[in-house]
Write a structure and sequence with these properties.
Number of helices: 8
Largest sheet: none
Structural class: mainly alpha
Radius of gyration: 18 Å
Helix content: over 70%
């Protein structure tokens, strides 16, 4: 497997992290750039670490992880996405019910992007990279080369997703949180059904 093939593999593995980054950008629109950069950093890190784990563990736990990977991803992203949808719908309903001038402090509550949220999402979107590590070992591909390339590719894709998410969030306005939640639930379902 050559460098170009590893980059393509990295792009394919980063697709879920890319979509989650865009969704999070909708929901956490008021977060600082430095806090939003947690996503590319953590998603890239986990996309790089999971192939190493798969490579090192080989066949020991690969079957079990592959068996439950879809369920784990569905549960994590389904819960986060479902909560985003619920909160977004409540916010949209609340915005439609305002009759008079807004009272001070009555605006929407700014949500915080926590490290726990980013870690859970990073793990959920990187589980499939474990299986890739097992296949890298089977193909005698150097994980020392592949893992950093996959991590860097994911990082760059997620940085691009931050910029795209900001623009889409401006276009979608108040519906961005609901759209983001739907994307997360769909990614979870895709992982479960795959």
């Amino acid at each position: 497997m050559g460098l170009l093939e590893i980059i393509v593999l990295g792009v394919a593995l980063s697709a879920d992290a890319f979509a989650v980054t865009i969704s999070n950008t909708f929901v956490y629109a008021s977060e600082s750039r430095s806090r939003l950069m947690l996503m590319p950093l953590m998603f890239g890190l986990f996309q790089g670490l999971m192939p190493v784990a798969g490579y090192l563990l080989g066949g020991l736990a690969a079957e079990e992880i592959e068996t439950y990977a879809g369920v784990i991803t569905l549960v994590i992203l389904g819960l986060v996405g479902g909560n985003m949808i619920r909160e977004g719908v409540c916010a949209l309903r609340g915005a439609g019910e305002q009759d008079g001038p807004e009272e001070p402090g009555a605006g929407p509550v700014a949500r915080r992007l926590t490290l726990v949220t980013v870690l859970a999402q990073a793990i959920a979107t990187a589980i499939d990279a474990f299986a890739v590590g097992v296949s890298l070992r089977a193909q005698a591909v150097s994980v020392v080369v592949a893992a950093p390339v996959i991590a860097l590719t994911t990082f760059l894709c997620c940085v691009a997703a931050l910029a795209l998410g900001r623009k889409l969030g401006e276009v979608l306005g108040d519906r961005a949180q609901v759209a983001g939640g739907i994307v997360l639930v769909l990614i979870g379902l895709k992982a479960f059904l795959a």
